[in-house]
Amino acid sequence: MSEIITERSGSILRVQLNRPAKKNAMTLNMYATLAELLNDAANDDHIRVVLWYGAGDSFCAGNDVEDFLKNPPGPGESPQALLENALINFDKPLIAAVHGAAIGGGTTMLMHCDFVYAGESAKFQMPFVNLGLVPEFGSSFSVPTRMGYIHAAELILLGLPFDARRAAELGFVTRVVPDEKLLATATETARKLTEKPAGALQACKMLMKRFSREYIEQAMNVENEEYASRLHSADTREAFAAFLEKRAPHFATHTEGVQ
């Protein structure tokens, strides 16, 4: 069974994360595949819009822990970095339809979408600090920029979960809709976008993002270096051990230096 399923509907490319038993948790192969799909779509004149969603009861539960621990990302050209670059350089409209769990990268990847429709069941969280890690996908810049530092601190430093209604209040999602209307709503927006002049549409997106793109790229580079460093910390080793052993973690009492 393919971990990612694609379907062409006219000039719309539908991309479904397809690991429902694992809540669509991302493997290295999925990162690389999704990056390739976006890069190919960017260069395909017949594709005007990409619509992204998850199979089963969730959007994406972040990294697949077992796969992640076997192949932790480094500061260089990791599969995660390939997807980061593909997302930031994707100039066509990108729409996400989110239901159920959107955890870790399942939340931060959404910051690169132009439209995010959240089903009423959607639950978001950026629990990186709970694992002794830092945010990624440029979210250390994009989250406080979008919703303000105070709100970002609550979500990133405490790693608090937030529901669809709170996401809408913070300007994190375009709109909250009933789960049963989620995909239809996102699809209707995709259809409307295909009726716009493609060149002007991409130019509008480029103009709106031109100032932030450089800062997000810088944030990604620093995040990736810090993330790779934190993976080897005692706190992160303890966090993952506790996760696998289904117990509370016991973190060190001293502070590890920031790179």
What does this structure look like?
- The chain is of the alpha/beta class.
- The protein has one domain: 2-enoyl-CoA Hydratase, Chain A, domain 1, CATH 3.90.226.
- The protein has helices at residues 28-42, 65-70, 79-88, 105-108, 139-147, 149-156, 164-169, 182-194, 198-230, 234-245; strands spanning 4-9, 12-17, 49-54, 94-98, 101-103, 115-119, 123-125, 162-163, 175-177.
- A six-stranded mixed β-sheet has the order 1-2-3-4-6-9, with helices on both faces.
- α1 (28-42) packs parallel to α3, α3 (79-88) runs antiparallel to α9 and α5 packs across α9 (198-230).
- The longest helix has 33 residues, at 198-230.
- It is globular.
- The mean pLDDT is 94.
**Major beta sheet summary:** 6 strands, mixed
CATH architecture, please?
Alpha-Beta Complex
How many β strands by DSSP?
9
- Work out the helix count: 10
- Which fold name is given in CATH as the topology? 2-enoyl-CoA Hydratase, Chain A, domain 1
- Strand neighbour order, sheet with most strands: 1-2-3-4-6-9
- Which descriptor suits the 3D outline? globular
**What is the C-alpha radius of gyration, as a whole number of Å?**
18 Å
Q: How many structural units, i.e. domains?
A: 1
List segments where confidence is low: pLDDT < 50 over at least 5 consecutive residues: none
What are the key terms here?
three-stranded mixed sheet, 15% strand, six-stranded mixed sheet, globular, 10 helices, 259 residues, single chain, alpha/beta, 2-enoyl-CoA Hydratase, Chain A, domain 1
Topology:
Elements: E1 4-9, E2 12-17, H1 28-42, E3 49-54, H2 65-70, H3 79-88, E4 94-98, E5 101-103, H4 105-108, E6 115-119, E7 123-125, H5 139-147, H6 149-156, E8 162-163, H7 164-169, E9 175-177, H8 182-194, H9 198-230, H10 234-245
Parallel strand pairs: 2-3, 3-4, 4-6, 5-7, 6-9
Antiparallel strand pairs: 1-2, 7-8
